[in-house]
Amino acid sequence: MQIGIVGLPFCGKSTLFQTITKTHLDPSVLSKAEAHHAIVKVPDARLDKCSAIFSPKSTVHATIEFVDVVGLKKGESGSTQFTTNFLSNVKTNDALVQVVRLFANDVVPHPDGSIDAMRDIVAFEVEFILSDLSLVETRVDRIKKQLLKSGGDENVKRELPVLEKCRQALEAEKPLREVDFTKEEMGVLRTYQLLSVKPMLIALNFDESQRADAASIVKQVADKKSGKQTKIVSFFGKIELEMSELPDEETTVFMEEYGIKESALGTLIRESYALMGLQSFFTVGEDECRAWTIKRGMTAQEAAGVIHSDFVTKFIRAEVVQYDHFIALGGSFAKAKESGQWRLEGKEYVVNDGDIMSIRHS
Q: Domain 129-192, CATH 1.10.150.300 — does that match?
């Protein structure tokens, strides 16, 4: 999974990227007009607990790739230009984090001259909607001409009503992430890499002096912009960057001192998983303890295919125990079996978040 971090100049997006990836880059590197990529382990205390029980040869966390997306430019009027290069860079991401500046700094003023979270959020939303609308209208016109000439094949005929549905929403200035699409409709849309359909996590960037007001401001913005696949979170960029430079043993003390309950990385991953409908299951043992990321609602057979594509056709049964039950029974498979918590499930079993599974296959 790849998550792109976007934002207006001087909003703190590169600060957030460095914080969550612990890649503390030189300013000369950050100033270059090229995207920065980093793969981050998904922290999961459940996997760590399993690893402590089995002492495996290896522990493999799920991973997420974060991208510091570049390409925005300042126009002649001083306002930000959403360039074709920027919009192209955004298309390749599965989800987006928009960093929105809430802090004032006279040394580095906001490019639009004032702090206004809603204005900055809407700026991105409008550009994404306009970009999608242009693409959808062009494709609809081509399909209609094709249908008039030759009648078109069945795939084209199925495509048209989906695109018309998109156009109706976009013309109403509604981002596609807030539209209800079926699984089949989403399959059609994936080929177009539309921007406004991507889940959006809006991260409000505060400074230390705003700690008392941050929660109320987040609520105000959330009341206006939260949606089915849009979520508002907050972080304190400067504080979080300092925290990311500390040894792990000092981080807890630092968080307690500043009243931070969860790191920016933890918040972004938790909320991104929720927005994208993701969850984890585990395979454990003395050789390896590993977390696997799947879509909510996946069956045991589909989850097996994430481990190895051959397991889909060769799937026989899944041995399953829920993590909480396993830990409550002392991390013992024998006790899990005796209590009936370790059970056999067929290919239609819907995997739950935190299931520990062993796949039987031919």
A: yes
